UniProtKB/TrEMBL annotation:
It comes from Ohessyouella blattaphilus. The gene is rplJ. Keywords: Ribonucleoprotein, Ribosomal protein, RNA-binding, rRNA-binding. PROSITE patterns: RIBOSOMAL_L10. One of its GO terms (cellular component) is ribosome. HAMAP family: Ribosomal_uL10 (MF_00362). This is Large ribosomal subunit protein uL10. InterPro entries: Ribosomal_uL10, Ribosomal_uL10-like_sf, Ribosomal_uL10_bac, Ribosomal_uL10_bac_type, Ribosomal_uL10_CS_bac. Residues 167-192 have a biased composition (Low complexity). Forms part of the ribosomal stalk, playing a central role in the interaction of the ribosome with GTP-bound translation factors. Residues 199-208 have a biased composition (Basic and acidic residues). Belongs to the universal ribosomal protein uL10 family. Part of the ribosomal stalk of the 50S ribosomal subunit. The N-terminus interacts with L11 and the large rRNA to form the base of the stalk. The C-terminus forms an elongated spine to which L12 dimers bind in a sequential fashion forming a multimeric L10(L12)X complex.
Length: 208
């Protein structure tokens, strides 16, 4: 069997793996220890990202006629590819984070949603939050005013009796002078006839 025939199934497999991918990242993995390589593969797998090591010639053949053909110029030296089917920046984020502790790992380039990016471009994309993080932040910003309103209403409800007591106390204070004046007025009315009677007695005594 010819070598081309032996390679074709692998080429077809690569082509199938990158088909409809949200992103494909080329990686230089030289210098990674066995433990680091094992950890990297596990981390990517847990995130649903395909990570494989292929020969550059086979990847070039698989990329022919696709948007991933723009990666051909970066296919030099040992290369691995990280393929994400859903989250376009997931592979870049994980690889960039992993490279902080495993400095031998490098991102060569990548294709994200049809656009080719070099190493620097991939590093910038790695700083973009995931869709879940963005949705979480958006939800948090939307809930914040509602949460604050609910907190204020709850405080008002808890302080209800005290709040109602203030106007009641003010009304009582305002009404107190009028209520106190009533007995005084009644006393004045009651005392008036007595004073008049006294004057009459005096007049009668004088006349006598």
């Amino acid at each position: 069997m010819a070598k081309v025939e032996l390679k074709q199934p692998i080429i077809n497999k690569i082509a199938e793996e990158v088909k409809d991918a949200a992103s494909v990242v080329l990686v230089d993995y030289r210098g990674l220890t066995v433990a680091e390589d094992t950890e990297l593969r596990r981390t990517l797998r847990d995130a649903g990202i395909i990570y494989k090591v292929y020969k550059n010639t086979m990847m070039k053949r698989a990329f022919e006629g696709t948007e991933f053909a723009g990666l051909d110029e970066y296919l030099a030296g040992p290369s691995a590819i990280a393929i994400s089917k859903d989250d376009a920046t997931a592979a870049a984020r994980i690889l960039a984070k992993f490279a902080k502790t495993a400095q031998a790992l490098e991102m060569k380039a990548g294709v994200v949603e049809g656009n080719v990016y070099d190493e620097n471009g991939m590093k910038e994309l790695a700083s973009v939050p995931s869709r879940e993080e963005l949705l979480s932040k958006l939800l948090g910003s939307l809930q914040s005013p509602i949460t604050n309103l609910a907190r204020v209403l709850n405080q008002i409800a808890e302080a209800g009796p005290a709040v109602e007591a203030v106007p009641a106390a003010e009304e009582a204070a305002a009404e107190a002078p009028a209520e106190e004046a009533a007995p005084v007025a009644e006393e004045a009315v009651a005392e008036a006839p007595a004073e008049e009677a006294t004057e009459e007695v005096k007049e009668e005594t004088t006349e006598a």
